Predict the structure of Regulator of sirC expression with transglutaminase-like and TPR domain.
Amino acid sequence: MRSPHPPPPERSAELRRRFAEEARCERPDLSTLCLLIGAEADGALDEAGLDSAQVELDRLTGELPYRPGSPRAWALALRELLGERYGFHGTPADYRRLESSLLHEVLRRRRGLPILLSVVWLEVARRAGAPVYGVALPGHFVIGFGEAEQQVLADPFDGGRVLTGADAELLVAGATGAPLEASMLTPAAPLDVVLRVLNNIRAWADARPERSDVALWAVDLSLLLPSHPARLRYERAQVLIRRGDFLDGADELEAYAEVVAAVDGPTAERVRDQARATRALLN
């Protein structure tokens, strides 16, 4: 299958406007933001496709039993529906596909990265009234049910397998070599989830220099979030320079230098030197 390509500029501008507007809502909608990311990635995803994805999440929700009860009962009900009946899960090969980070494709293929499969679990469970939230373990996103004292974790990448404490410790140790800490088990805010999705897309593109178009729109969407790392501007400059857009790349470097000058003068000066060297490429 051909990797998806972004929409025309006019469509992209409208999608970005809607993305920024949704991200600044009092309660940003996770599925809407993820689907707008998908539309920015895939020019074939039109308004009907966006609506169909939301309808599919609603349909899956309608197949859950009515309010299963305890956090563990919710986790088991989601596993039975999404993991066992519909076969949502991940494989190592999914890390090599851009589609694995696009919600509409994950709903279609029933395959994806841990965080996008978690979004499916989260959105279906949330619609059904479950006490559910994302848990951003280092290197492996999972979902949680219930309050801290009775928290139940599940791994959508593994078909919704309910995790023991030892399982969670192994996931963290495998990703970082460090022990599991209580702070790692706190609920992830929707915009933090969205930023992590975009981080994954940028990492995918960074490994594929021929897809600098993906790297650029992913960093552009990241910059539309109300809170984002300042260094994203430096990353955007590097992408522009790699694409041969030396003038805009130099402008972006200078903007980043202004941001960091107040806290790190030497770094700001080095970035200004890079901007000057980039402008010299125009001669």
Notes: The radius of gyration is 20 Å. The chain is about 60% helix and 5% strand. The beta strands are 132-137, 140-145, 152-155, 161-163, 187-188. Residues 190-206 form the longest helix (17 residues).
